[in-house]
Amino acid sequence: MRLVEALLASFILMFAITFLNVIAVTPTSPTYEPGNLEKMGNNVLHDLDEKSLLARFVYTEDWGTLTLALMVSLPPEIYFDLTVYYLNWTVANNETIRYGTSDVFENSSYIASVTYIVPGYQTDYDPRILVLQLVRR
Amino acid sequence: MKIVKHKKGQFIIFATLIIAIMIISIGTIMYSTVTYFKHERWQEYLMVIDNVELGSRRVVELSLANYTMLNGTNNQTLVNNLNNWQTNVTKAYPSFGVALTYSAANGSYYAYGMNINYSSGLAYLWNNATSFSAANATFNLNMTSVGFTGYKFLISTFLKVRIFNATWSSNDLEIYLAVYKEGLTPVTNLDANDFSIKDANNNTISISSSNRIHHMTYGPIYRIYCTNVTANPVSAQVTLIDARNIKVVASSAVT
Known about the structure:
The structure holds 2 protein chains of 2 kinds.
Chain A (H helix, E strand, L loop, with lengths): L2 H21 L9 H18 L3 H6 L3 H11 L4 E8 L11 E3 L2 H6 L4 E10 L2 E13 L1
Antiparallel strand pairs in A: 1-2, 1-4, 3-4
Chain B lengths: L7 H33 L1 H28 L7 H16 L5 E7 L2 E5 L2 E5 L3 E4 L4 E14 L4 E22 L2 E10 L3 E2 L8 E4 L5 E2 L3 E7 L3 E8 L8 E7 L5 E7 L2
Antiparallel strand pairs in B: 1-5, 2-3, 4-5, 5-6, 6-7, 7-8, 7-12, 9-10, 9-13, 11-12, 13-14
Helix pairs in contact in B: 2-3
């Protein structure tokens, strides 16, 4: 009878797979998630800045278009909340720049945060600091 | 009842053990690789470097825009803005210990096929057939939190207008010119609103149309067309303001 050997072999394989599952870092795990989201958020802000769109939206206070630009640039399962600050850390945006409800951010275990600085617009040096928070749905 | 021993059963366990060892080994290697890169935060350092470099480029561009819009009256614009930028960039990335230093170009440099005489990182030469505005600064970036030092980058911003030909006949004025930016890359996204024209008496000549054509030698050039120019303007002064708000004023005799 090879039943005992087959059972033993199954246990060994089960143990190996379970062990691997415990230590593996999957794309949705807390170890991987914030870093990946930060990279994504930074890339989006950087791309918008390179196209000279970010400064235009921020300094003309076109928060609605900025929200749309972030929505189309980020994958649909990513919620975001952007706050624009003056250099003294007072809030510059009088409207929320957000995709997703506030409780998504309050209840989420993992929130990635990206800080980005825009030095000015057209001929004026007047920096704004952007803080972008990201959560995966 | 006699128990029958099968020797092939041990082979199954042996093979399974080898497979299990392989699975665990591959898993361990993957784990150590991922955690190594996580702990080192390479991506974050690269992001900060990229952001500081792009931000510095923007500071140089807007300083040149400010300088040229004020017709070169304040050549301390770039130095003042860069001094502020040095301080402000540390506020945006406090945990990285970012330390940015700069050196604004001074004196004569040969670049883009011409001599550029910088003063505090800024230069302009206007009212010629070939006119330009330029800015130049070298930066040094350190990140003290990780012992990263000596990352140098040069930012050169440049806008040049070259008038090839300006002719007046039958009340029509026609100007052919080329526009280049840093790296002598042709600027191809301009339209009639980006140009303005004045005659020798400083009267504005309205532009009827402008279009881009391809020249065999010079590549993409602009043809600016003005109708109802009743008298010969003698000279044409072309002012260009590009998408970065950098201004150049070029001038040429009208034939």
